[in-house]
Amino acid sequence: MKKILIVEDNELNMKLFYDILQFQNYQPIKAMDGLEGYEKIKSENFDLIILDIQLPKMTGFQLLEKLKEENIKLPPIIIASACAMDEDKRKAQSYGINDYITKPIDINSFVKTIKQKLGES
Amino acid sequence: MNIINKSLNLIDDIINNTNAQSVNFYQNVLKMMSSLYENNFSISIFFCEDSNYTLKLGIKNNKFITNFQHEEIFKKIIETKEKAYIFKSNENELFYKNSLSVKLSIRDSVFGFMILSSKEEIDSNIQTSFEALVNIISYKIKDYELNEVFKIQLKAMQDAFVEKEAALDIVKKQHKKLQELDKTKNLFLANISHELRTPLNAIIGFSQALDSKIFGELNEKQAEYIKDIQISSLHLLGMINEILDISKLEANAMKFNPAELNSTQVIKEVVNILEPLYKNKEIDIIFNSNFDYKINADYQKFQQILYNLLSNAIKFTGKNGTIEVIQEVKNKDYILKIKDNGVGIDKKYHNKIFKKFVHIDNIYSKSQSSTGLGLPITKELVKLHNGKITLESEINKGSTFIMEFKKIIL
To answer: Max alpha carbon distance in chain B (Å)?
Structure first.
């Protein structure tokens, strides 16, 4: 079963992502803030990470910067953010992330993107 | 004549040292004249109003006087047309036996007179000298007056200049403040948009999850309500996006990323997205799916233009109506028309509808809430593509939005 880390601080959104992933037969793991996400990425292996940007303790971009500095090898990442500004999309690209989903997400395309990233479609 | 030189020197002194108002100046001149009293000569000066030559100020017996009504001689001096006037009088405090009056004037404008009084006969030499003196004094006085006027005008101009500078300063400060406020407003709108999207994600996500029946079947009412929730949430999302877009456009923060795309493909996608809305009203959307041109456009923005115009068309078209999407090519220009047979728009609104926050009341829009930003945004997005949008519409016959994009056909 593929392990997917969800870094998301909003409880309801976490629940939504968690349930969808579980239903799709993945093993979702929760991280409720940036720091928790950072620590989990360092200590466990994941097949995919779903990352929010505005997070408490450490923002999504801070997390990416820190992991980059420490040369930690990362699995594919999908950013799911409520921020619809072009600047953030460009910033994500600078970390090599092209999958930037703006909330509210469309479940079907969300699942499609995940499957694509995991090489299942 | 000593007294003539003396009076010239005196008037120079007064002019050079007087910087007060003109009444003071005249009084100084008069005072000066009272000292010009020698054994055989006296010189006195009188000022009068311009138009009717009534005396306004004079000196007599070392005292200022303003009441000249009984001085017959002054009347005669004023009334005579000659510039110089010689008269004899009984010796008194002011005049010796022989007197010569010369009018103070510039050209034909008389403003007073001076009187030279002497115990002896006034010969022609003295008369010439005195006339010269009065002439010089006339010019000096008028020159002084003009100078004063000039100074007042100059001061007024300087004051106005200072005021303008200050006003400019205020405008600059206000402009800066407005720019800051504008920045704050745009940032605020971006934040609001973010804050509203987060809960909307849960609403749309959960209702989609229920709708896709992944957690089990729904009964008829439940299925209907879930659709209602979805439609309302999408409507809310549309409005949030419009607010964000207009703030981006106004802050010139809208990025334009044109690329090669198939316009017919985008139309298909947008029509698919809108399916629940037009199917609900049994509206037909017709377009030529064989139109196969590549255009240079920003995918997201081109999609948004179509979405805005088509969702408007659906909104304002009645049950069983028809909407056409027409694509044409005219020397590298791409023409796109969205035509409906709905309620139409009254001519008087044609110019207004592309402005912000304009709503046109009609039976269809009354039940629909909107930001009034859809068409202004569409217009700006068309403009970003080097295009322009116009409207042809007649009430009850329908509307056609026509867009001409210059040279975007590849």
So the answer is: 138
In whole angstroms, give the CA distance from residue B393 to residue B401: 8
In a domain, B166, yes or no: no
Do B151 and B50 lie in one domain? The reply is: yes
Do the Cβ atoms of A13 and B198 come within 8 Å? yes
CB B357 within 8 A of CB B373: yes
Together in a domain, B242 and B333: no
CB A11 within 8 A of CB A56: no
What does the alpha-carbon distance between residue B336 and residue B405 come to, in Å, rounded to a whole number? 8
CB contact under 8 A, A12 and B244: no
pLDDT digits (tens, 9 = 90+) for B388-397: 999 999 988 9
Quick check: B86 pLDDT over 50?
A: yes
Domain ranges of chain A: 3-117
Q: Work out the average pLDDT over B40-58.
A: 69
- From chain B, pick out residues whose CB is under 8 angstroms from the CB of A54: 194
Size of interface A-B (CB pairs under 8 A): 64
Q: Give chain B's domain count.
A: 3
Closest alpha carbon within chain A to B196: A82
Contacts of B215 in chain A (CB under 8 A): 23
Residues B183, B89 share a domain: no
Which of A23, A82, A84 is nearest residue B214 as measured by Cβ atoms?
A23
Topology of the domain comprising A3-117: Rossmann fold (3.40.50)
Nearest to B205 among A23, A85, A107 (CB): A107
Could you tell me if residue B167 is inside a domain?
Answer: no
